[in-house]
């Protein structure tokens, strides 16, 4: 059991997200981000499959075929697009991603930066979150609402081009002011 390391990883991640959220004015979300990771359903799994370089959820999936911790997490945390997957009112469409409120798209954006910093360490650059997103985007299909995907993608491109300070300033002044 890597309880101490896992506890520190969560705290470190939450601290990075909090700093980002505070810079754009999302104080409440900054304080409450990922709190469900301290619940037994998520915390104990995280300790058991602690990896250090990637999410423990991946290790749990490999072992039992799915991740109980992740299913618990994505059902409770609105900054994950998976939280917003639901039946369309149009029966022909089936299950699709609903449009996310902008403040949660911003939290998701900051979450991705924080995760990239943690797992990449000194190899992190401002263009890495964009590269990571573009590598996986084709697999998202209709799980992410087009307007949500468009906003996230445009912010990731801005981050790669103009850096974090500039992008956070734009989010605070323009994106969240609307
Ligand atoms: Zn989360």
UniProtKB/TrEMBL annotation:
Annotated InterPro entries: DUF5662
Species the sequence originates in: Sporofaciens musculi
Pfam family, one: DUF5662
UniProt name for this protein: Catalase
């Amino acid at each position: 059991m890597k309880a101490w390391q896992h506890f520190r990883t969560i705290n470190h991640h939450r601290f990075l997200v909090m700093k980002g959220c505070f810079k754009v004015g999302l104080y409440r979300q900054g304080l409450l981000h990922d709190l469900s990771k301290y619940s037994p359903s998520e915390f104990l799994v995280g300790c058991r499959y602690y990896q250090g370089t990637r999410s423990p959820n991946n290790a749990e999936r490999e072992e039992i075929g799915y991740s109980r911790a992740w299913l618990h997490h994505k059902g409770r945390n609105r900054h994950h697009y998976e939280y917003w997957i639901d039946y369309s009112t149009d029966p022909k469409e089936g299950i699709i991603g609903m449009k996310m409120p902008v403040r949660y798209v911003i939290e998701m954006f900051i979450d991705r930066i924080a995760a990239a910093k943690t797992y990449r360490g000194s190899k992190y650059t401002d263009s890495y979150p964009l590269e990571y997103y573009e590598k996986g985007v084709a697999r998202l299909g209709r799980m992410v609402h087009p307007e949500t995907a468009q906003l996230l993608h445009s912010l990731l491109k801005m981050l790669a081009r103009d850096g974090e300070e500039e992008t956070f300033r734009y989010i605070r002044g323009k994106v969240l002011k609307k």
